Amino acid sequence: MNWDDLRIFLATARAESLTAARGSLRMDPATIARRVARLEASAGTALFLKSPQGYRLTEAGLRLLTHAEEAEAALSRGIGALTGSAEQLSGAIRIGAPDGCATYLLPQVCARIAEKHPGLDLQILALPRIVNLSRREADLAITVSRPKTDRLEGERLSDYKLSLAASKDWLARNGTPQSLSDLKNLRMIGYIPDMIFDAELDYLSTLGVDRVPLASTSVSVQLEMARAGGGLAVVHDFALPAAPELQRVLPDAVALTRTFWLTTHAGPKDARLERITGLLRDGIRAEIARLEAKTAPPQAAATVPRQR
C-alpha cells in the first residue's frame, strides 16, 4: 500500500461517492472504482459499503481512515518544512455551519481568506441541523454546542448575543410590549418547535413563549419574517446591521448569550487544516465583534438565565 493508494482512499471516504471524489482526484469515476477495488484486494478486506447512494466506510475502512489521516498530516508537515510553503494555502475545505453563522458571518470571513489565498476553495455547508463530521459532510464545523463524542473535539470559538426585535412598522401598529408576560399575547417568530435540533436554540421557551405562529428552520427566514412586519423574533445581534427596519424590544429583560464552537475530528491534523482553522477562528471572532459593535445598546442589559 503506497501513498497514492491512501490518497484515493481518503478522497473517496470524504466524498462518499466516486462522482464527488472525481474533482479532487482529477480521475474519472471508473478509474477511481478500479483503484479502490485494487486497494481492497491488497488489504484483503472490504473498505467501503457500495450502494447507489454512494460509498460508506466499513469498520475496516474506519480503522484505516485514522491511520491514513495521520500519514496525510505527517506528509503535509514534511512538505511544508522542506519547501517553506507555509504562506499560500490551496485545495478545497468544506465548512459546516448553522445558517445564521453561514449567512451573516462566514461570507465576509471567507472572502477575506480567499483574497489572501487564491488557490483555496472554501465551501460553506449551511444546514438547519448539526453537520455530521463523522460522515465526512464537512472538514470542520461551527456548532452551537460542544461535541459530545470522543471522535470530535471542540474549541470555544466565540460568544455571541441575541436580542428580541420587531420591525418599527409592526411596533407602530401593535404597540411595544412592556414586560415578558406581554409576549404571550403577541405574534412570535421562531423555530418550528419540534424541529429544533439543539437545546441552545430553544430561545422562546426560555422567554416563556409556548406558541410560535410564524416559524421556520432557518434563522435568515425568521429574520426576513420580522423585517416584513410579521411579529417579534429573537435575532442575532450580528445580523441586526443587515436589518435596519428592526428595533430591539425589552432590551433590559432580554439579552441572550450563546457560544459558537469550532468542531473538528479528534486526533492529529495536517498543517493546512490547522492554518485554516486558525484563520477562521480569528476572522469569526473579529467579525462578531465588528457587527455587534454597530448596534450595541447604550448600556448592558440584564440577561435571561440560560436553560441547559
TrEMBL record:
GO molecular function per UniProt: DNA-binding transcription factor activity; sequence-specific DNA binding
Chain segments annotated as coiled-coil in the UniProt record: none
Pfam families the UniProt entry points to: HTH_1 (PF00126), LysR_substrate (PF03466)
Lineage: superkingdom: Bacteria
Keywords from the named record: DNA-binding, Transcription, Transcription regulation
Segments forming domain HTH lysR-type: 1-58
Alphabetical GO biological process terms: DNA-templated transcription
PROSITE patterns: HTH_LYSR
Keyword flag Nucleotide-binding: no
Keyword Transcription belongs to the record: yes
Family note: Belongs to the LysR transcriptional regulatory family.
Name of the molecule in the record: LysR family transcriptional regulator
UniProt source species: Gymnodinialimonas ceratoperidinii
